[in-house]
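General statements about sequence and structure are easier to judge against a single worked case. For one protein, we set the task of working out the structure tokens from the amino acid sequence alone. The sequence in question and its structure tokens are set out directly beneath this paragraph.
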Amino acid sequence: MSKSFLGCFILWILFQLLIEVNCQMTPFKPNVLYKHTATFVDNKLYILGGKDINENYVGKEFFYLDVSVPFNTQNLLWQDLSNINMLPPHSSAASVKGGVNNDTLFLYGGITNDQTMALVYTFDPQSNSWAIPKIAGVNPFRKARLTGVNHDGKMYLWSGTTILDNYVFVNDMLILDTINLSWGKGSLVNAPTPRGHYGAALLPNNNIIYIGGYDDITVGFNDNLYINKGNALTLIEVYMYDIMNDNWSTKMTTGNIPSNRADFSTVLGLDGQRIIIFGGGFINPGYLDTTLYELDLINFVWTIPKVTGKIPTPRILHKANVIGKYMVISFGYGYDQSIESDILLLDISNNEEYVWTTTFDPTIPNNTNNTTSTSSSSSNSSNNTGAIVGSLFGGILFSFGVYLLYKWNKNKKKQKDEGYGQEERTISTTKNIHNYVNNNYNNHEITQVPINGNSTNNKPIIIPTPVINKNCGQEIIHDENTTNHEPIIPAPEVNRNYNHGEVTSTLDNDKLQIFKDEILQAVDQKLKNFNNSNITRNDES
């Protein structure tokens, strides 16, 4: 494989990896607009079901927003899980966080055209998998347009409409035990009239509050969300279901009572002493503010809270969850998606002044008493990091590949240069042998040179003198005073001819080549230490 081909191949691989990373960074743009569920589980806000702007089911879209990291509502990085969604297209279902460890998404009911849709589904965020649980007890009929509220692993499902018989409003309290997977029912004594698209929230005193809604399936709204057909229910009365005692009560409210309304969202304030509602369709536009209201749970007084920041357009059929210090509002009908974000953030940490903001700060811990999202909400209460990590990974990978290619070329050049230098040293050593032999020809010098300059080697190398006299075949005696203490070794008997100082013998070519290589190595080392070595000379002539 040539160097140029290898370099092109490496760059092609890196380019493909970089494209893959960038493709994964492409933001997911959901089609959902309203009638979805929004369930907060393990620092993720899961969005499922609903309808698009054309009032069609959104298909199998399933995605989440990671709220464990800061984000800006103008740059939402949704994480798409649609490829693992097993549910048929649907809308107006109810969901909560429940299960043995209170970390499982439970989805109940909803409207669908697919008759194979199960009544209840569960989603495990740890394994990213859906399942249809087997639930003991009487299997109830499917309902829609209701809100699920979780308390100690039990999902309370009051009223709503059937999906048959022209969506009849039903008055019952279904209770799904999400831990033991069994059905139950609650009392209906003194229960309010049946309704749908109401507001609901779990209170610290183990009561569920139910507010507003409508009991007329023909209700309709104009572009300003005023009810122009049918009617919504009053907010003068609110209704309390006592979970522990299984009974109902009614509370009368005062103050700036909102007009009759439905399709709004309801959350519990962080101090557990107030209910906050947002948006909804209403029948009386005469109020100063028809977007945000607050109900004091001590005296049941309605007020219009002080709010700063840019007030958003009212919405209906949206969802709201309390996450950290924020009321997080997702999607809905009535706003322009090209102008306003699909997510609204209301900072409710200061009861004296709420703030509409576009930045989410996750450093405030979640208030476990205020994770119920209702009315239009569904549960108890890229990412820029993924995109940044992906970009950094792609850049680092590309840079690393370029670096490897550079090092490879550099090493090849270094090896070539070192080979050239070694060749020069070999030539120089050969010349040194030639000069050394010529210079010492008249001195008849015989030198015993240890291999690698170390006397501990078993077999020293002998450099013989030219044949001058009768003693040329004598033993070669190494002076005992030599610092290396080499042994006395007789010189081999060979026929020596000198041609410009080169040594030849009658040995075969292979042995001769080895012998030459050993001489070159030994002499090269010896010459380096020449000034510090003692050389024994034979004085006989």
